[in-house]
Amino acid sequence: MMISERHDKILALLNKRGRISIQELQQLMLVSVSTLRRDLDQLAESGEVQRIHGGVELTKQQQTLQHEALLSQKNEMNLSAKQVIARTAMRELHGGETIYLDAGSTTGAMIALLGNLQPAPQVVTNSVHHASQLADLMVPVIIIGGQVKLSTNATIGATAAEQLGQLAFDVSFLGADAVNTDMGIMTPDLEEATIKKLVINRSNKVFVLADNSKFDRVAFAKVSDLADITLITDKSLASASAYQAKTDIIVGGES
Fold it and tell me: Where is 204: in which H helix or E strand?
């Protein structure tokens, strides 16, 4: 294996694992300790990895680049479906409302459209990304404080919950990782579930934006029953009748 190939393989393993011990890395690479140490020294000198006691990890800069790449990849998934859902969700607004915009790529598809809404809405969000984009479009925006969850750029935790408890929303648009008839709306993260529950309790109307890939799935933490929200999706579901028995479903492209 050539030097460049070994370096690429080491970086690929670190992108996947975060950090690896020297012993485990040697077993995975099938090279001598001296060769591995030389490769790691070269990668450290180039600023791509940093040596830690007994192992190696990506530098903070490389971790940030990897995180941004993952967010970009997520934003590109099912892009056309998200755009259909966003346009459909905008029909629920007339201008001037106080709205909550949840973190996530599907809710993020609404941002450009919100920039054209008049009178401008007052937007509250727990997304660092959404807040920045909305500010660039001169849309009035408040970002909820708290701990930033790096995988989603969403604020969570006690500070976020306390601030949300002081607010009320005309309309809220939430994302979901899973939607099913038994457990309702679900997310993999307990703290994100807590934030979403608070928003639902503080909102006059709640719409959950979910493309077809999110239905008939289960995630770790329950957010709400279907009866507490209205679903907006991109196309008709094969299992639509089971969901319609429990909540309203708005399908993009249908009047």
Answer: strand 203-209
